[in-house]
Protein: Ribonuclease 3
Organism: Lactobacillus porci
Amino acid sequence: MVSTKFIKMLDEKYGVKFHDARLLEEAFTHSSYVNENPKKTLGDYEKLEFLGDAVLEFTVSDYLYRHYRHLNEGELTRLRSNIVRTEGFSKMALDCGFKPEINLGVGEEKAGGRERKALLEDVFEAFNGALFLDQGIEAVESFLKQTVYPVIDSGFFTPSRDFKTDLQEYLQQNGSVDIEYKVINESQSPSSFRVEVSVNGQVLASGEGHNKKKAEQQAAQHALERLTEGGK
Amino acid sequence: MVSTKFIKMLDEKYGVKFHDARLLEEAFTHSSYVNENPKKTLGDYEKLEFLGDAVLEFTVSDYLYRHYRHLNEGELTRLRSNIVRTEGFSKMALDCGFKPEINLGVGEEKAGGRERKALLEDVFEAFNGALFLDQGIEAVESFLKQTVYPVIDSGFFTPSRDFKTDLQEYLQQNGSVDIEYKVINESQSPSSFRVEVSVNGQVLASGEGHNKKKAEQQAAQHALERLTEGGK
């Protein structure tokens, strides 16, 4: 069951105090725990997760719409999906100290369920669903102002620039060109790649990386730098 | 531009009266119209659609959570995705008389844009995004109470029952059984299929349909009827 220490922390750190303690408990209860403890009349978090998922999508969208007015719809959508995906919310669950509080069945615990990012994300969503039911959307917003929104503003979720696309757009301003990426030393070291980028058959720049994708990105970045410096 | 007749209808039929008329106008303005009318300082609906999409996901989820308590999380999720998908909201846009009010560019109009379901869905989302910005979430809920929620309650969005899954669950209550579906007259008519369902090698029932999937569903339905009648 959720610890008194955790309940105290929620109140002191985030000003969150549940009226209905069962809602909080349900948000932290995995179905494997319910299955192993049929006598406890406790539900699992799945329906709260269904609701919390939508609550978070809405509050995050509202925040982005109001605070990131310089972004267009495509950029907003990409940023939103970076935030609401598994990586993002599982990080938030860890940051908020949710991990040790989850009620897991013995089998799920042994199978490493507590470490699964998808499960941590579920619990973060369920918690926000429970908070919404208990105290309304303003309480969720107040919690997110202290947790998720600062992480958004830190740039943590901002998609990294795609240099390959940028290079393509730059080069094709005046019509189609032939851009080719070629790995030039794959055999030398399996953990380091060197890639050359050619435009209409002429090598423009090269890049290195731990994998082919990263090496291509660096090659495109170097090409862009060379092209835009040359234009000055 | 949105007609005065439409503005009057929104007020009289749904009690919706925008404080900021520009928000309403923006919700009905496609990018093709903005491109052709650069002198009008009007934005297109895309950012309102980004917001409205999340507003609708949230309000619909909240409604389902509170009013469909007998459904489990999987059923709630399926029902929600039936509602928020293109078919659902484009129908709502038509029902609410949105179609003639959309500001479209000449090219988009000629290309049949006004008939595109995806565009109608976009406008329905954008309208709800605009209404939320203008008057808050309660105003959106009040509008949906008169439009979307009754359609949900009519069963319009309820997924049709999956008889194959139901049959499997029924038969495997006491352990694993071997269920087989077999097309028995595919060659006779390409537009009608007859399928037999066998359990542990014994034919239980058959079904017909325009395609194999439908014939299998009917076979499973007939099998379920036979099994549950027999059990009475």
About this structure: DSSP finds twelve helices and three strands in chain B. Residues 34 and 44 of chain B are 6 Å apart (CA to CA).
